[in-house]
Amino acid sequence: MPAVSQPHLPKEFVDGYLRSSMHSTHSDSLSKVFECDMHDLRSGCAVRVYNNFANKTTLFVSVYGTELVGSPLTIAAYTCDYLMACESLRLGADPDRQNTFGDTPLITALVMLVILAENTLGPLRDMAIPHQRELERRSERCRGIARVLVQQHADVNFTSPDRITALSLACTSRDWDMVTLLLRYGADPVAPLHAVESDHPPFASLDDFRQYCALVMAISYSSRPSRLCPCFSGKALADCHSNGVRHAYPSHFLCACGSEKPYGRCCALRMVVAGEEWDEEDGFGFIVPKFPPGFSLELGKMAASILPPEQVKADCQECRATEAATSNLSTNEHHEELTQVMRILKGDLEKLCQDGILDPGYLYALSQVGRVPINHGKMQSKLYCKSLAQEWNAAVDAYIKKGDDERSAADIEEALKLHSKLGALFRRCDGGCGKKQGRDVTKLLRCSKCQNALYCGAACQKAHWKEHRGQCKSKSTEEQPIPAQVVFQKHIVDAPMTIRDELQLWLLLCGRFRMQWHVY
């Protein structure tokens, strides 16, 4: 198990909590954000295992000797873990996601507040006296969780299967500040009257009812206040992460490369500029990390986007050791090493062109784009591949306009242009008939299983199946390459080199750096 990472919250926010009256050093009250339970959640959100990971995952957490199963936000509300609730929201948890009992996190937090109020104010008060201060701290954390959920625009009018609402529970706990907050955020003032016969009647006395009526009369609701940004900057969402401006990725958050190290001590040192943006899915908004197009997950996967899987398995451990050694280099030293690799790469490619092995149009496009279009199927970002293909094809068009190549424009396009998966734009039938898409047939059909092999019809697919079957389900199945990609793979990628040279080459070929070709 890796070392416990820091909470994905502003450091000053966490420090403020630790100095506040909510914080407790009691063993049962320590926040899970400082334990291993939240580490996998952070890691999954950083590398984006799938979109909105925090809202679709389930945690198994041991609390008070009991195993709890549920969403991170639900567990935080049930255990009165204020920091865990805040971090779950920061990572993208939906404040209205219901638990197995049909309750939202807001309902859960306020039910816990009612239970704690009964222990501190009700008939069990004398038994609770030895633990009075701890119960007060827990109540304060529960209150804080409910307040944060309301400020994140949780549904304040949600009715639980037990016919209770957030407002009726706030009345039951006699927390008039919470009642005021809920009314200001649009809670239905009539709702508590429907909960009179529930397990948590809202009014214990006529005085409580009169006080509630006075609050309702005093608060004039027109529209709920603006949602606060879940980054906990204290700013309104419209003035923070949803303002259309990319925000800097915090240096103490886990890096998206999968190294499980803080970004500031990982890819930030390699000049990878990361940010954060606002995203929405099914009407729910959350903050997502944004790394450069083509940014791969960890060094082993960087290798996998270039080298065959069997070679990656053999070399991965040694590569990690090399990466650890190079991570100690200063930015300038690292840049000098990369510059040297670029010089060598440029010289090798120019020599291949002079010898008539490499297409000169390929070298021209590479000099304009600055990134090598490596074609390895499904192992690269779709956005990166599409963006690079567009840049590359524009450079090929510019090469044709120069008029230095005696070939026809159609022949140059066929030899050099790429489609959105970084394979050949003008592809041939894999069945061996030689028919080309866009030339002999309008469109080639893809194999329904691997989606990579291309055929002009069923007859060619059947004839090719015996040869294709072994690769059909392999992630290493590649798109058809252009001839220059075959040359690059054979003479550059497959050429003998040291592990350290391979590491530097991977950094260049995985989209982490744009090569300034004219400088070298």
UniProtKB/TrEMBL annotation:
Residues 430-472 form the MYND-type domain. This is MYND-type domain-containing protein. It comes from Calocera viscosa (strain TUFC12733). It comes from the Eukaryota. The keyword Zinc-finger applies. One of its GO terms (molecular function) is zinc ion binding. Keywords: Metal-binding, Zinc, Zinc-finger. Pfam families: Ank, zf-MYND. InterPro entries: Ankyrin_rpt, Ankyrin_rpt-contain_sf, Znf_MYND.
